[in-house]
Amino acid sequence: MPHRFERADQWAQVFDAPDRDAWQRPDDVIAVLALAPDMTIADVGAGTGYFTMRLARAVPHGQVIATDIEPDMVRYLAERAAHEQLGNVRAVLATGEDPKLEPASVDRVLVVDVWHHVADRRRYAVGLARALRPGGMIAIVDFTATATRGPPRPHRLAPETVIADLAAAGLDAKLAASTLPEQYIVIATKPSS
Q1: Do 38 and 59 form a contact (C-beta atoms < 8 A)?
Q2: What is the pLDDT of residues 99-125, one digit of tens each?
Q3: What's the chain look like in SS3?
C-alpha cells in the first residue's frame, strides 16, 4: 500500500496526537522489546519520532537509528532529537527497498504501523534480518482486521502473513503474547549462532 507522508510538520499532528497513547500503548510495545540501556535500536519508518524519542530515553547508553523514506521526516526527526536533547538518535534516509542499516549493527528493530506499506516485504525482511546482531529481535506492530483505525481493510495484513514474511528471512517469528486494543505484535528473533 504505497502512501506518501511528505509534510512532517502536518503529520506530527496525527502521529503525535494526544489520544494515540491510549490505543498505541507505547509502554507495552517497548516492554516487548526487552531493552537493555546500551542497546542499538532501529526504529524503521520512524515518522515524526513518536517511538524514537521514547526508545532513546530507554537506551540512554545506546543508540536509536530512526529511518524513514521521506526526507522531510528525516529532517523533522533530527530536529526533534536535538530539541529534546537526545544525542543518541541518528536520523537516516532509507528507501522502500532498503532499510539502510549496516550488517549486524542493531540489537532490536521496531516497525510500527508501517509493514502494510512495504511493497516487497520479504525482501525488506531480509535486509532487516541482515542488520540484526545474533540473538537480535524484530517487533512489527500493525492493525488487526477489525481495528477502527489504520489502513483500509483490503490493505491490512494478517499476523500469519507477517510471520511468514519474517520466517522467509530466516527468523524465528511468532505472535507476541502482548495484546493491544487494535493491533497485534509479531516478534522475530535471529538465531544466536
Answers
A1: yes
A2: 999 999 999 999 998 999 899 999 999
A3: CCCCCCCHHHHHHHHCCCCHHHHHCHHHHHHHCCCCCCCEEEEECCCCCHHHHHHHHHCCCCEEEEEECCHHHHHHHHHHHHHCCCCCEEEEECCCCCCCCCCCCEEEEEEECCHHHCCCHHHHHHHHHHHEEEEEEEEEEEECCCCCCCCCHHHCCCHHHHHHHHHCCCCEEEECCCCCCCEEEEEEECCCC
Q: Which residue has the cell 537509528?
A: 65
Of residues 159, 131, 124, the one with CA closest to residue 144: 159
Q: What is the pTM of this model?
A: 0.91
Residue 108: beta bridge partners? 41, 137
Ordered structural domains, the chain, with CATH: 8-12+27-189 (3.40.50.150)
**How many other C-beta atoms can be found within 10 angstroms of the C-beta atom of residue 126?**
18
pLDDT in tens, 36-69: 999 999 999 999 899 999 999 999 999 999 999 9
Is the confidence at residue 11, as pLDDT, over 60? no
The Cα–Cα gap between 20 and 120 comes to 28
Q: Report the DSSP beta bridge partners of residue 109.
A: 42, 138
Q: Which three cell numbers stand for residue 159?
A: 499476523
Closest to 41 measured CA to CA, from 136, 124, 130, 117: 136
The residue whose grid cell reads 492493525 is 143
Cell output for 61: 547508553
